[in-house]
Amino acid sequence: MRIVCLNCLAEFKFDTARRSWIWVLRQPNGGFATRVADYSRRLDRRCPNGCEIDEEILDHPTTVIGFVGESASSKTHLIVSMIYSVMNDPMLAREWSIVPSRRSTKMLAALENTLMNRQAIGYTQKRGYVGAQQRQENGIGPLGAPQPQGLPQPRPPQPPMAQQQTRTHAWSGWQVRTPILIKFTSLSTRRTVNLAFVDVAGEDVADAEIAAKVSPHLAIADFLWFVVPSTLNKQYLAIMREHAGPANEESLNNNVEHSQTVGRTKMMIDQIAKLWRTANSYPLDLPIEPPRLHASTIIAKSDLLSLINLPEVGLVAPPPDWADTPYSLDGAGNLYQPGQIDYRSDATRSLVRKLFPAVDATLSIHFPHNRYFPVSAVGCGKRADNTYPVFKPFAAVDPVIHMLDRIDQLRADR
Fold it and tell me: Which residues pair with 129 in a beta bridge?
């Protein structure tokens, strides 16, 4: 069973015969090597690098899911909405036990309460340099600031038993994206897997120095989700503004909320593909394909697509009156069945090729098996005071069903 430390991103296994950790070391030629560490780390719930880790990671395999998008894509809202939707969906409750990890419960509850109260979640900022060993309890360090020059500041006296120091690793001194860890157990096969949802700001990949810090995460990701807002094409954005009703008018007139462009999105996709290939010693001329990496794209803010007149909109977007009622009794726009999910994905691809074909072309070059999923994290646009008229997600469960169907550890026949 592969274990991933969600702090330093080290991959390791546990050898029960030798009662010791076995590191998975990546080699320049793409091969792997191993290194043995001390067993006491397991008893202390620490990885071989000394990082404190969730006990669930030691008990079940972990699938790492990276979400990449600019702040304007509302990907943080999307992640929280997806987790909230799967944990409260009556259809999934018949097949899955879905439980957040102990260390993720507090953070997830705060984020969910924000959306349930129809308040906007703050933007994901670029990761800053904070210096080694300067992290808060939740794993997010303070914003980076210029380090003072001159003599080092004196440290307060330490007790005789100084706390154990974490070894230097790829993210030392940089703010760490705190993942949300959710445990999924199949009621039919009794198999369990951890899904680690990691939020990666698209702005991080624009800077070469910071991008080098992102590449370790890309190297271990099992699923990669690009989050692309439906308002990339500014000509169609103008049409949306003409037909907007009270639920979306204020949001569509917010230029910052819809500032992401086709050019920056193409650059983000291209940089992510380049970093993943470099981190995995993957040939530059070969496409990135499953099962090594499953790449998909979420068309966020899909509720706005109902404001344009294209044939695919009826299959892809929620109805225009979606936000008129606070609750949904028809499955919240989810299809649940893999065949129907694939059908909607094909329709979304057809729509994307009309709205922003250059983005689809870039995705097809690097990730030929890319699938599209239309999702509205909240179900309506954000008001000027950072509140929402309703909290009514659309199709937020289907992407999770798509992932669960592709995780081998959950299948009894694999």
Answer: 174
Contacts of 273-278 with C-beta under 8 Å, sequence gap 24+, read 273/366, 273/367, 275/205, 275/211, 275/214, 275/215, 275/218, 276/215, 276/218, 276/219, 276/221, 276/224, 278/215
Beta bridge partners of 372: 297
Alpha-carbon distance 39 to 103, whole Å? 23
Give the chain's length: 414
> Cα-Cα-Cα-Cα dihedral of 51, 52, 53, 54, to 10°?
-170
* pTM, full prediction: 0.82
- Tens-of-pLDDT digits for all 414 residues of the chain? 777 887 777 777 767 676 677 766 655 444 555 555 555 555 567 777 777 778 888 888 899 998 988 877 888 899 999 999 999 999 999 999 999 998 899 999 999 999 999 999 876 555 554 444 433 333 333 333 333 333 334 333 333 333 333 444 444 554 456 789 999 999 999 999 999 998 876 555 655 455 555 556 666 789 999 999 999 999 999 999 998 877 678 889 888 888 889 999 998 898 888 888 877 788 888 999 998 899 999 999 999 999 999 999 999 999 988 888 777 666 799 999 999 999 999 999 999 999 999 999 999 999 999 999 999 999 988 888 889 988 999 999 999 999 999 998 887 654
Beta strands 32-37; 20-26: pairing state: antiparallel
